Amino acid sequence: MSVKKVFDPNTQQNDLSSKIVVGLERISQAFKVLLWQQAKELGLSPIQIQILIFIAHHNGPLNNVSALAQEFNVTKPTISDAIKVLERKSLVIKDHSSPDSRSYTLLLSNLGQDVVKNTENFTSYLVTQIDKLNEEDQKGLYRILGNLIYQLNKNGILSVQRTCYACKFYQKTTSNHYCHLLEQQLKDADIRLDCVEFEANV
C-alpha cells in the first residue's frame, strides 16, 4: 500500500484526509506557540507548565514521576529534571507519605497554585474560536476527536487514555452510550476525555 505524502500540496489538492491531518498539525503548532509564550513570561519550560497544570487538576496517584512520564510521553529523567526545577523555584512540594519511601507524589505550593491560575488560560484564544461554532458543529468535532484519540491510544501512539471508550464501565448501545458507574445513558457530548473515575477495561 502506498503511503500518502500528506504534506505535499499536490496530494492535499485531491485528498480531504490529508488536508485534515495538515490542519491538525497546524493546531498542534498553535498549542506550542501559546504554551511557549506563557513559559517565556515565567521563566519556565512548556513541560514544567504542563506538569503544574496537570497536578492542579489530578489526584495523588497520577502525580508521580512514572505517571507523569507516561502522561506526557517523555522519559522519567525528563520529568525528574523538570521537577527539580519546579522544586527549586518552590512551585511544588514532594509528599513522601507513601508506604514506599522511595516514591513520592507532587503537590502544588501556594506559589505553584498562583502560577497555575495565571497560566492555565493559555488556551483561551482557542476556546473563544470554538465557542463561535454552532452546537451541532461542536458536537460533531468532539465526537471525531474522541474517536481519533481512542484509536491513537489503541495503536500505542498515545500512551495514556482516561476516556469512556476505554473504561470498564462503558458500554456501546444501539441508541448511544451507557455508563454502568453513573447508571445512565450518555450522549456523544457526555463522553469524557479525562475522567477522574476512569478504570481501564482490561
From TrEMBL:
<keyword id="KW-0238">DNA-binding</keyword>
<feature type="domain" description="HTH marR-type">
    <location>
        <begin position="17"/>
        <end position="150"/>
    </location>
</feature>
<keyword id="KW-0804">Transcription</keyword>
<dbReference type="InterPro" id="IPR036388">
    <property type="entry name" value="WH-like_DNA-bd_sf"/>
</dbReference>
<dbReference type="InterPro" id="IPR000835">
    <property type="entry name" value="HTH_MarR-typ"/>
</dbReference>
<keyword id="KW-0805">Transcription regulation</keyword>
<protein>
    <submittedName>
        <fullName>MarR family transcriptional regulator</fullName>
    </submittedName>
</protein>
<dbReference type="Pfam" id="PF12802">
    <property type="entry name" value="MarR_2"/>
</dbReference>
<dbReference type="InterPro" id="IPR011991">
    <property type="entry name" value="ArsR-like_HTH"/>
</dbReference>
<dbReference type="InterPro" id="IPR036390">
    <property type="entry name" value="WH_DNA-bd_sf"/>
</dbReference>
